[in-house]
């Protein structure tokens, strides 16, 4: 199931593409990252996939 997570360390997650709203998070105000994991562990989000393909 497609969802979105914050990779800034706050653990934010949403079913909608929004910006991180966690005060003090290093990615506060930045868009969440697409994630399609099926186990809610988020270890295969799209940003990591892009790095693996480089």
Question: Please, could you describe this protein's structure?
Answer:
The chain has 54 residues and is an alpha+beta fold. The protein has one domain (1-49). 13% of the residues lie in helices and 15% in strands. The chain has one helix spanning 46-52, and strands at residues 3-5, 13-14, 33-35. A three-stranded antiparallel β-sheet has the order 2-1-3, with no helix packed on it. Strand 1 (3-5) and strand 2 form a beta hairpin. The longest helix has 7 residues, at 46-52. The radius of gyration is 11 Å and the shape is globular. It starts with a strand and ends with a helix. Residues 46-54 have low confidence and may be disordered.
Defining traits:
single chain; 3-stranded antiparallel sheet; 54 residues; 13% helix; alpha+beta; 15% strand
Question: Topology of this structure?
Answer:
Elements: E1 3-5, E2 13-14, E3 33-35, H1 46-52
Antiparallel strand pairs: 1-2, 1-3
Could you give a quick summary of the protein structure above?
With 54 residues, the protein is of the alpha+beta class. The protein is built from one helix and three strands; from the N terminus they run βββα. It has a three-stranded antiparallel beta sheet, with no helix packed on it.
């Amino acid at each position: 199931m497609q969802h979105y997570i914050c990779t800034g360390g706050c653990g934010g997650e949403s079913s909608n593409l929004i910006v991180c709203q966690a005060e003090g998070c290093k990615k506060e105000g930045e868009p969440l990252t697409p994630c399609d994991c099926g186990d809610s562990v988020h270890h295969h989000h799209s940003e990591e996939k892009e790095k693996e393909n480089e």
